[in-house]
């Protein structure tokens, strides 16, 4: 099985969806580490409950020294030799120095239909633009933020009374379907696009 490390920053609901899918004995991958950039990340307890090793590497003591923070991330990854790195709500920007060696083996989920709305506040931006459709994207990570080859997208309608919160919740349900579907294919060496 391919060895998967997952980076989170918050509640980790996408991480849970990936770990639960990998519980299938026929899955081509298994989780070897969940790493958060804060000991407060709610997802760490969830990962522990699911039997996955966890670690936190707090970015704050590095005071903006991204290469030093990334060296600490790499030190944790080196201990578990992952084949695939999944970003799942990881809210720190990674530099080219970190990303380049992982290129082709690192995935991310982003809450918009890329190339629309790279960066933050994707749901309010979709509402402000008057979009009637929104969604999420799983892509391979390159040094350019929220760029890179798309592995899959899932679409949801925008309803007329939507707030950023109601729209985010509708997208999140789809994220939990899309990311596991994409990781399954990717770990099996299949980069055929997933559309949900
Ligand atoms: C998800 O909606 C994910 O797409 C988004 O953060 C949320 C994390 O939720 N990611 C980004 O915005 C990346 N820039 P989770 O911790 O419950 O998976």
From TrEMBL:
Ligand binding (N(1)-(5-phospho-beta-D-ribosyl)glycinamide): 12-14
Pfam families, alphabetized: Formyl_trans_N
Amino-acid positions noted as binding (6R)-10-formyltetrahydrofolate in the UniProt annotation, renumbered to this chain: 66, 108
Residues under site feature: Raises pKa of active site His: 146
Pathway: Purine metabolism; IMP biosynthesis via de novo pathway; N(2)-formyl-N(1)-(5-phospho-D-ribosyl)glycinamide from N(1)-(5-phospho-D-ribosyl)glycinamide (10-formyl THF route): step 1/1
Entry annotation: catalytic residues: 110 (proton donor)
SUPFAM superfamilies reported for this sequence: Formyltransferase
Keyword check for DNA-binding: no
KW RNA-binding (keyword) present: no
Catalytic activity: N(1)-(5-phospho-beta-D-ribosyl)glycinamide + (6R)-10-formyltetrahydrofolate = N(2)-formyl-N(1)-(5-phospho-beta-D-ribosyl)glycinamide + (6S)-5,6,7,8-tetrahydrofolate + H(+)
GO molecular function terms noted in the UniProt entry: phosphoribosylglycinamide formyltransferase activity
Enzyme Commission code: 2.1.2.2
A GO-annotated cellular component: cytosol
Residue intervals of the Formyl transferase N-terminal domain: 2-182
InterPro entries in the record: Formyl_transf_N, Formyl_transf_N_sf, GART
PANTHER family linked to this entry: PHOSPHORIBOSYLGLYCINAMIDE FORMYLTRANSFERASE (PTHR43369)
Family: Belongs to the GART family.
Protein name: Phosphoribosylglycinamide formyltransferase
Gene field: purN
């Amino acid at each position: 099985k391919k060895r998967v490390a997952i980076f989170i920053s918050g509640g980790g609901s996408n991480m849970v969806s990936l770990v639960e899918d990998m519980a299938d004995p026929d899955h081509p991958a298994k989780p070897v580490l969940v790493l958060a950039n804060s000991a407060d990340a709610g997802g760490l307890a969830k990962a522990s409950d699911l039997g996955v090793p966890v670690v936190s590497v707090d970015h704050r003591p590095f005071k903006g020294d991204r290469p030093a923070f990334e060296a600490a991330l790499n030190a944790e990854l080196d201990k578990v030799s992952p084949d695939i790195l999944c970003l799942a709500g990881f809210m720190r920007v990674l530099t080219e120095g970190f990303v380049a060696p992982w290129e082709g083996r690192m995935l991310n989920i982003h809450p918009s239909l890329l190339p629309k709305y790279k960066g933050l506040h994707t749901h309010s931006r979709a509402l402000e633009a008057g979009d009637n459709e929104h969604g999420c994207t799983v892509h391979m990570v390159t040094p350019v933020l929220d760029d890179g080859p798309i592995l899959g997208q899932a679409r949801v309608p925008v309803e007329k009374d939507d707030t950023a919160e109601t729209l985010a919740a509708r997208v999140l349900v789809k994220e939990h379907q899309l990311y596991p579907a994409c990781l399954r294919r990717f770990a099996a060496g299949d980069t055929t696009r997933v559309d949900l």
